[in-house]
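Step 1: inspect the first sequence and its tokens.
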Amino acid sequence: MTIHRRDALKGISLGAGSLVLSQVLSRLEAHAAGTSSQPKRFVFVVESNGVRPEQISPVGLKRDSRQERPGAPGDYVDVSLADRELQFSLEPLKPWKDKLTIVQGLSGRVCGGGHSNNFQALGAFGGGRANGGESMAVLGETIDGALAKTIPGIFPHIGLGMSKRVENNVIYNISALEKDRPLPTMCKPDQAYAALFGSVANGAAKEEFAAKNNLLDFLRRDIKKVQGELVGQEREQFDAYLESFETLRNRQSRLNEIEHTLREKGPAPTDKYTSAVETDRLDAQFDIGAASLICGLTNVLTLSSAAGIRDFDVTFKGLGINLDKHSIGHGGTYEGKKWDELYNIIRRYHMDLIAGLVKKLEAVPEGDGTMMDNTVILYLSDGAEAHHSRCWEWPMVMIGNMNGKLKTGRYVDYPGYGHKGHRTTANMYVTLLQLAGSQRTSFGMADPNLKDLDQHGPLEELLV
């Protein structure tokens, strides 16, 4: 009977792996009891150097850029993606087209613009430029910080990323809990792995974890004990969790598996967790981020790809592009590829990583579905709509329907800046907060130039 299954799960005692495995067992217990209330999760993938709107619009769909000029577009566009071809850079997400929402037309003028909007990108607050450069002021909370307070986990927020400087361990670039309280982005995968998963142990057990250098090896005794006491559906679900952890064993670069790069096939770096190649480090951080979600360590994850003014001119040598993104942004070419083609190759790599994350979350049962059913992934750039952005619009790509609460499989384009029906990035962030259970109707700073428009509330058009 159900009560016996639940009691059996409750009665399993754990040793060194209690922090990780107890999270898994609690989900199995709730499901066995028929009282499961699944956690909501939010993932932010923030890439540097802007996203040109035309590069993520469905193929064949023409649109004018949203600039502050007379006659700027005023129509709201909402079309199905079902029969639309995705752009080259978004093709890795094709299997989830029905869970995909491309959102265009949102402005973020209060953020100022420039090479990077830094904390303003996820904060929807001011800061602007100072002394000819982009401001690093933290004038408020960012959306990932706000969600961390709304749906806290063992770690309320985990920030992982890649800096152009291999020596950087921790940086403060795009996330904040509140005014003057930035949240860290861990940039060295090996140290991030040790910090997050080494937290399952104390004393001699911590030393054992460091020596084994692998989560499954460290948890082996506890895993065998749990497997011996589980039967039926719970055993199958538990094994699915373990399979997702297995990816942490693979410390080899996956660059040779990625198509559509300029990189010739060749030997990959031996360990992506300590690699100097930026694409290897980003790959490793996605692995760690996925495991952190699956283990239940956090409900809010931010993955930063050289975001922030200090790293925006990163070079993606791992993709065979030996030209930095600053030069690409100024129209640079490399090996016969124009700037837009180079941007597309780099963005496609990010979408490959996002697709891998979706697959891992889909592989883990949760309630009557999978973890991905209760997760939303939002991709955007800290640079808004261009290399030298002015934030007239802020293209975003969203994957996931939050258990049916979002209308997906759509391309949505809001009216231009200042036009009736125009919305801002703050409205998107209110949408996410309300999906998380918050009653908030505003976020960040209101745009003083949009005083004639209602800037409160969520993007109702995205909600069921």
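Step 2: inspect the second sequence and its tokens, then contrast the two.
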Amino acid sequence: MSFNDIVGQETAKQLLQNALRRNAVSHAYLFSGPNGAGQMQTALTFAKALFCTEREDDACGQCLECRKVEHGNHPDLTMVEPDGASIKIDQIRDLQRIFSYRSENRNPKVYIIDRAEKMTTQAANSLLKFLEEPQAPAVAILIAENGQALLPTIQSRSQLVPFRALDPQMMEKVLVGEGYPAALVRCAVHLASGLDECRKILNENWFAEIRNVVLQLGKESLNRSGSAMITASQKVFKTELSDHLDLLFSMFHLWFKDMIHVQYGRKESLVFIDQAEYISGHASARSTAQWVSYMDLAAECQKKLRYNVNGQLSLEQLLMGLGGNTPA
């Protein structure tokens, strides 16, 4: 794995490789951007490049140092991730203890903190002191969905490396080329920010199931027959799909958006490409304003879910709204 193997993120790769070429590597980097956009892959590649004995600005992937990183047993690379819901001060103290020993190979020591925004206040303050006064040459890579969520003092001591969601068409081409079903890929690339995240959900059995349920609920809700409620009860809340309601609401949003795409003659933009005939035949059943209102309702129910409102109530509110009824 080298920088050439990372899809997209040209700004991030150029920034890091320029630092390697100029021998001007910072003591701390903040990889900020949407989850799954390639931050971890880039962080590991950067660590390999720092250790690599063959290349100046990249990882060769063949030398002993590179292979140690790939096998997860490089003595100068330390990974930190949340222990439960947060990264705790004891984890940062353990990191400091590990880094009190000098590197055996004159490498800088590298540590990667995944989901760094999950640090407790005490952990963040402890890390800040460590950033200011490392006991050995060290490079910190902090990965965060929102870098602004970190302490301003940590932000100011780290070089920002921006990551952006990958272009869906670019991801779709790669994933279809890897043999994933085209209909599932088209949906996944509009739900995830990067290839790793897409592959993760495409490899889950429930992903195809939840997509089928959304299609069934979306069609049944157009009939105003009330059958959508029964389907939701049987196929969502009595199964493991109830653990993935956030994704279900996102799919509903895409379903309603597809209706608008057809109304405006943009069939090439459809997400549910295998449903083109059905969508074309039913898009006119509601006005554009009504489809937009359904998108808003899906977003509102998803927001409630994220604020810990009961999942079943949230989905029932959506289905009742689609059926033209006002939820109690």
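Step 3: confirm your contrast with the notes below.
The mean pLDDT is 90. Residues 204-322 form a domain with the Zinc Finger, Delta Prime; domain 3 fold (CATH 1.20.272).
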